[in-house]
């Protein structure tokens, strides 16, 4: 016969059961996707008969047995301990999980009866990997704030924010070059008559840094990343060093960090499988045993399903049977990987060019060249100058002015960097001469 959990638990306090445990059916039923249970159990089963009897024990996930004991013979008057642990991700809403026992004679094989201690103990740890808003906010990734996440993307792609002229409730977020350099809606304003040209004094732009490094967060437990850094003399995978040492008037160094994101080393899993290229995100201890770690979030392209060039084994997990597989879903910081990758045609989610590991030649279509270089090329120019001057601006000028507009003054084109406007007074405007 089949006995359910409660029949064997006796007087265990059912108020401590998981929230999705039905006390009538004695079954756990998932209510969200990817609900995770980490279960440790210990059941003591006794044979009260004068003859040997048998019992079978198992957990059941839908129709999939977990940790089956097989047929166990319990001698007369003896006990059998069914114990163990497992983790189960209930991948679909409505998945069920329960423990089952089958005795050869149900009237004499039962949970051991004691008055001083529990003879059945089950510990449920309900995970928070279920993909719902509430549970995601409680996971490790949920520790990343919304603004922190958005700020990381703004840093990667050099994004700027502008009010939406058609809808004041919206904010436009676009790359710098699309707003200031390649914007068909920007206009050139003639302010020559609004200033005293005799007061114009152009000065070199000296508040720039001589050296700037663009990089991601360094995951110190990331073995592949740190090993790459050691092997190449300290260069950070995915970073870019912008050196303006030719401008001798400049000094100082700066770092632009795409926090909270980390760079992701991609490489073949093994030399004999050159096309089996995957993200390498793992730690390694002194015993050279690899394991996962609490890594920073990563930004990668979905490269699609790829052939491994070999067959690999996937053990039974998450309610699915084991199988041999020849394909895999590939992710990387590049839009394409060998075979067939052409460096000039692919894009890179990292800042700078660096030596890749089995992933072909580096691409110049990276974050720095596509999104930051247009901005830096305009500022870091020997002809770039800055000027601060009083300008006679009306309320109408201020109301219609947009910072992606350019200003024409005495045969020269400027970009406005700052405006200090006071009604009924001259405005103080900081201009940058566009070379």
List the helices and strands and how they pair.
Blueprint (H helix, E strand, L loop, with lengths): L1 E2 L1 H5 L11 E2 L4 E3 L5 E13 L5 E9 L2 E3 L4 E4 L4 E12 L5 E8 L5 E3 L8 E7 L6 H4 L9 H11 L2 E5 L7 E5 H6 L6 E3 L12 E2 L6 E7 L5 H9 L8 E4 L9 E10 L3 E3 L8 E3 L3 E2 L5 E2 L9 E14 L8 E10 L34 H13 L5 E7 L3 H6 L5 E4 L2 E9 L6 E7 L2
Parallel strand pairs: 14-26, 16-18
Antiparallel strand pairs: 1-9, 2-3, 3-9, 4-8, 4-10, 4-11, 5-6, 5-7, 5-9, 12-13, 15-25, 16-17, 19-20, 21-22, 23-24, 25-28, 26-27, 27-28
Amount of beta strand: 35-45%
What's the helix count? Answer: 7
The total number of structural domains is 3
Number-wise, the strands total 28
* N/C terminus separation: 88 Å
* Rg measurement, Å: 33 Å
Proportion of residues in helical segments: 10-25%
| Secondary structure category | mainly beta
Q: What about the largest sheet?
A: 7 strands, antiparallel
């Amino acid at each position: 016969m089949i006995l359910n959990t409660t029949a064997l638990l006796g007087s265990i306090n059912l108020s401590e059961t998981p929230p999705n445990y039905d006390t009538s059916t004695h079954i756990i039923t998932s209510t969200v996707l990817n609900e995770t249970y980490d279960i440790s159990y210990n059941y003591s089963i006794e044979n009260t008969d004068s003859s040997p009897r048998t019992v079978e024990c198992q957990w059941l996930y839908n129709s999939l047995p977990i940790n089956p004991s097989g047929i166990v013979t319990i001698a007369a008057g003896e006990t059998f301990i069914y114990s163990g642990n497992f983790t189960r991700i209930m991948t679909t809403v409505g998945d069920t999980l329960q423990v089952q026992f089958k005795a050869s004679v149900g009237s004499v094989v039962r949970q051991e009866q004691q008055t001083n201690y529990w003879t059945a103990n089950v510990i449920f740890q309900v995970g928070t990997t279920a993909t719902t808003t509430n549970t995601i906010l409680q996971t490790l990734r949920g520790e990343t704030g919304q603004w922190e996440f958005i700020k990381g993307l703004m840093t990667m792609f050099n994004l700027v924010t502008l009010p939406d002229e058609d809808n004041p409730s919206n904010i436009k977020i676009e790359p710098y070059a699309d707003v200031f350099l390649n914007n068909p809606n920007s206009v050139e304003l003639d302010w020559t008559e609004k200033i005293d040209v005799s007061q114009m004094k152009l000065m070199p732009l000296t508040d720039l840094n001589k050296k700037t490094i663009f990089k991601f967060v360094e995951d110190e437990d990331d073995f592949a990343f740190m090993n790459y850094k050691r092997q190449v003399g300290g260069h950070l995978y995915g970073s870019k060093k912008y050196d303006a040492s030719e401008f001798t008037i400049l000094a100082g160094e700066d770092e632009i960090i795409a926090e909270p994101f980390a760079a992701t080393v991609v490489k073949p899993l093994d030399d004999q499988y050159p096309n089996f290229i995957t993200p390498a995100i793992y730690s390694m201890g002194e015993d050279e045993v690899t394991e996962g770690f609490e890594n920073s979030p990563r930004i990668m392209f979905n490269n699609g399903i790829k052939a491994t060039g070999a067959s690999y084994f996937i053990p039974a997990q998450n309610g699915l049977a084991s199988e041999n597989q020849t394909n895999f879903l590939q992710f990387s910081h590049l839009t394409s990987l060998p075979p067939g990758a052409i460096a000039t045609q692919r894009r890179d989610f990292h800042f700078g060019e660096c030596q890749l590991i089995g992933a072909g030649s580096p691409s110049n279509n990276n974050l720095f060249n596509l999104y930051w270089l247009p901005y830096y090329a305009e500022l870091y120019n020997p002809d770039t100058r800055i000027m601060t001057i009083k300008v006679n601006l009306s309320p109408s000028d201020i109301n219609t002015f947009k910072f992606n507009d350019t200003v024409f003054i005495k045969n020269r084109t400027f970009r406005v960097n700052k405006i200090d406007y006071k009604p009924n007074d001259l405005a103080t405007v900081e201009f940058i001469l566009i070379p």
